[in-house]
Amino acid sequence: MTTTNTRDGQKLGVDGLTDELRRAISAGELAPNQRLIEADLVEHYGVTRSVVRTALGNLAFEGMVERLQNRGARVRAIDVVEALEIVELRAAIESLCAWHAATAASDEQIAQLVAIGDRMRVCVDEGDVEAYSECNRALHDLVLEVSGMRIAPTIVNRLRAQNARFRIRLARTRNRPRVSFPEHLAIIEAIRDRDPERARGAMAVHLRSVEAATREHFVDGD
Questions:
Q1: 47 Cα distance to chain centroid
Q2: How far apart are the first and last CA of the chain?
Q3: Does residue 105 sit in the same domain as residue 213?
């Protein structure tokens, strides 16, 4: 295993390792129920055992990792009920962020949103689900950034990380990009037109669609 002990040339500390593990969980690189062995993390990231323990404690507090008595830690696996609640919470927060984004976006940021929409269209036409999923993440991240809100992005990113398993599986579902692309396009167009109420509504519609699809594939589909 290659050691990964720096970020931008700096040795990782507690905050850096916490961020790296959170990102890996959110991206699905660390799977639900996967054991997080301290010795392996020490070797991989080139940090001390104390840094690893503190970072795992941070993630346990966030609900992304669970401690196992006498067995270390593992990535916490949520059930579908929690997944649906997470999407509902995201809808409330991200709709507000979309409202703020429509009032605060610069011309450059709007151009970035439109460019993501253009890439999404190509991904849909080519059937590239993985690339579409990356664009999806980039779009939501940019809306959070453009909103200028300080606390909301942290909360949303933690929610998305906890929901990684269901989110990633849903994104790879057949025809899901074709369903979600018009919803994403409506968000982009509302922010481009600097229409906050329309932006808020478009984000709410999109995440209600995510909730319905989650329920269909993981509840009704069982």
A1: 26
A2: 38
A3: yes
Rounded to whole angstroms, the maximal C-alpha distance in the chain is 56
Residue 60 lies inside a defined structural domain of this protein: yes
- Secondary structure letter of residue 194 according to DSSP: T
Rounded-to-integer distance, Cα 48 and Cα 78, Å: 29
Residue 160 within a domain: yes
Q: Are residues 84 and 63 in the same domain?
A: no
Contacts 24+ apart (CB under 8 A), 176-181: 176/129, 176/213, 177/120, 177/123, 177/124, 177/129, 177/132, 178/124, 179/209, 179/213, 180/136, 180/206, 180/209, 180/210, 181/120, 181/121, 181/124, 181/132
User: Does one domain contain both 98 and 44?
Assistant: no
Interval 151-208: pLDDT, tens: 999 999 889 888 888 888 888 777 899 999 999 999 999 999 999 999 999 999 999 9
pLDDT confidence of residue 66: 93
Angle 33-39-43 from CA coordinates, rounded to 5°: 110
**Residue 59 scores a pLDDT above 60:** yes
Between 141 and 160, name the one with better pLDDT.
141
Q: How many domains does the chain have?
A: 2
Is there a single domain that holds both residue 52 and residue 135?
no
d(CA 188, CA 83): 25
Measured at the alpha carbon of residue 196, what is the angle toward residues 132 and 134, in degrees to the nearest 5?
10
Round to whole Å and give the CA distance between 198 and 34.
Answer: 41
Q: Which pLDDT score, from 0 to 100, does residue 2 have?
A: 40
**Which range marks the domain in which residue 109 is found?**
80-220
